[in-house]
Write a structure and sequence with these properties.
By secondary structure, the chain is an alpha+beta fold. It is 29% helix and 24% strand. Helix 4 packs across helix 16, helix 7 crosses helix 12 and helix 14 packs antiparallel against helix 15. It starts with 17 loop residues before the first strand and ends in a 10-residue tail after the last helix. The structure holds aspartic acid. Aspartic acid binds next to strand 21 and strand 22.
Length: 586
């Protein structure tokens, strides 16, 4: 038997027991005639003790152990003299009487401890070693617990987990497809699913009524901290539901996760905001509601006073940072540099402090009387000690988005984005379409299967940009954790939608004929949503990047540096797949 207990299990109540443990050597320390070894496995760390006086040969063996050796020991559980309050096994140690090396290890390329000396690249290359670190392992344990809770919650509500294929045709979620050449169908390609959208809708036509799947999706997009080319969705669909039904079920699921995983009771209904208001008041379709700091429009107050920048702008607006009037010139310059970074793109920033006597001092005082500045102060409801930050621009949406970045940055600086506080929000009433400047046409804001609000259907022909969708996103702390919609289930309306999106009838039929045909055979009203599991787990774990809750993630260039993928393939394999490569310039 390799072990009687794990390395995280033994307590003071086990004192004097004879036990056998197996695991990895995290560290050895020699102190006088004693050698201490930290033995690690998935469950924790237990201290082993070897005493030169009682068994010199064994102690000698222990002194030869290197980091990450795999060993098996037998010994007696002993109450520790120097207790370690930081680990659950810290009250005990094992006085070892038998030691066997099960496998030696080369010196690992970085130390496998919470505070490792390994940088990102090396840890990714040796990810199997990185996964031995308790912080990374804890994220995967959390992920496991969350999926178990999700499955059990949905199962209790009658949801059925159904697997859908991975080698399919294109599913339009707005990204590029990953494609797979078909050997048996020369010149033809499968696309990997960007989502299981069309298939889950077909399952509704089949009568499955309540479906879910924890499923891999693939999107060929530029990567960011919250994006990976392959990621996992908790994909759900329901029949005979309206928007309210869907929101209720999944609000319930999120609350269940908060309760069962984080021990947090979110009793209140989730806040709701329309997309329009989210953009107006927060400059974002995923506002972080842990703090207010709303955007306030100042056109009426600040335009027309001779300050050319504002006078020429299409939008002037700002935020009020409570108690931040103490910001120094240096801090304000840094904020100005922040908004001027190319990723944000503001031209500059105007600021105003509310002094202790209530007067307002701004960086553009020469253009504005105290009376106007007081009006501005009133618009924010600002108090002495507050700091007002103002941006302007010739594009309303763009300037609001810049203000959102500023709002988030200032809130981070003021400590308002506490990772242990959670505020959940539904963003509803998204526009059905958005205008694609590059291609000069409308694209679906969510996807082409999303239904318009019944009261807006009349606008489809006259003013498509104004049509609102039965679409919703769940946003927690500024992270879009899920999104979905009530679907079109009428083949005529679906045809029309494709037409509005610029599909010829032939192309629509070719790509989505299967769905529109299915709608002719009794499709029930249906709707659903998908959560991004990786984002949800990261949020619960307080991580900055979803990579840290994925066992084997890709880097920012979409590479798996451990497997060295993607990689070249043999000419014979190319031939078999009927592919010829153009010369690629490296
Ligand atoms: N398929 C959608 C997505 O991947 C979710 C949904 O509408 O259910 O975002």
């Amino acid at each position: 038997m390799f072990r009687t207990h794990t390395c995280g299990e033994l307590r003071i109540s086990d004192a004097n027991k004879q036990v056998t443990l197996s695991g990895w050597v995290q560290r050895t320390r020699k102190m006088g005639g004693m050698t201490f070894v930290d033995l690690r496995d998935r469950y924790g760390i237990t201290q082993l003790v070897f005493n030169e006086e009682t068994d010199a040969t064994l102690c000698e063996q222990a002194n030869k152990l290197g980091r990450e050796y795999v060993i098996q020991v037998t010994g007696t559980v002993n109450e520790r003299y120097n207790k370690n309050k930081n680990i659950p096994t810290g009250d005990i140690e094992i006085i070892v009487t038998y030691l066997q090396v099960l496998n030696a290890s080369e010196v690992p390329p970085f130390t496998i401890e919470d505070q490792t000396d390994g940088g990102d690249d090396i840890r990714m290359k040796y990810r199997y070693l990185d996964l031995r670190r308790s912080s990374v392992r804890a994220n995967l344990e959390l992920r496991h617990k969350m999926t178990i809770e999700i499955r059990s919650y949905l199962d209790k509500l009658g949801f059925l987990e159904v697997e859908t294929p991975v080698l399919i045709g294109s599913t339009p979620e707005g990204a590029r497809d990953f494609v797979v050449p078909s050997r048996m169908n020369p010149g033809q390609f499968y696309a990997l699913p960007q989502s299981s959208q069309t298939l889950k809708q077909l399952l509704m036509v089949s009568g499955f009524d309540r479906y879910f799947q924890i499923v891999k999706c693939f999107r060929d997009e530029d990567l960011r901290a919250d994006r990976q080319p392959e990621f996992t969705q908790i994909d759900c669909e329901m029949s005979f539901v309206d928007q309210e039904d869907v929101l209720n079920v999944f609000e319930g699921m999120s609350k269940h996760l908060f309760r069962s995983i984080k021990g947090i009771d979110i009793e209140e209904p989730f806040q709701r905001i329309t997309w329009h208001d989210a953009m107006k008041y927060y400059g974002s379709d995923k506002p972080d509601m842990r703090f207010d700091m709303r955007l306030v429009e100042l056109m009426d107050i600040l335009k027309g006073h001779g300050f050319p920048v504002f006078d020429q702008a299409a939008y002037v607006g700002g935020i009020c940072a409570e108690g931040a009037a103490t910001y120094t010139r240096k801090q304000l310059d840094a904020l100005t540099d922040f908004v001027k970074r190319p990723q944000i793109g503001a031209k500059g920033m105007v600021y105003a402090r509310v002094e202790t006597d209530g007067t307002v001092k701004s960086s553009v005082d020469k253009f504005y009387s105290q009376e106007v500045l007081q009006q501005m102060k009133e618009a924010f409801g600002a108090k002495p000690g507050d700091l007002i930050l103002i941006l302007s621009g010739d594009d309303v949406m763009k300037t609001r988005k810049q203000l959102n970045e500023l709002r988030l940055e200032v809130a981070s600086q003021l400590g308002l984005r506490d990772k242990d506080k959670f505020v959940c929000l539904w963003v509803v009433d998204f526009p059905l379409f958005e205008w694609d400047e590059e291609n000069n046409r409308y694209v679906a804001m969510h996807h082409p299967f999303t239904s318009p609000k019944p009261e807006d259907i009349g606008l489809l022909d006259t003013d498509p940009g104004a049509v609102r969708a039965n679409a919703y996103d769940m946003v927690i702390n500024g992270v879009e954790v899920g999104g979905g919609s009530i679907r079109i289930y009428d083949s005529e309306l679906q045809h029309k939608m494709f037409r509005l999106l610029g599909f010829t009838p032939e192309r629509a039929q070719e790509q989505f004929g299967f769905l529109m045909n299915a709608f002719r055979y009794g499709a029930p009203p249906h709707g659903g949503l998908a959560y991004g599991l990786d984002r949800f787990v990261s949020l619960f774990a307080g991580l900055d990047s979803i990579r840290d809750c994925i066992a084997f993630p890709k880097n920012n260039s979409g590479r798996d540096v451990m497997l060295d993928a993607p990689s070249w393939i043999e000419p014979a394999q190319l031939e078999e797949l009927h592919l010829r490569l153009e010369e690629i310039k490296e």
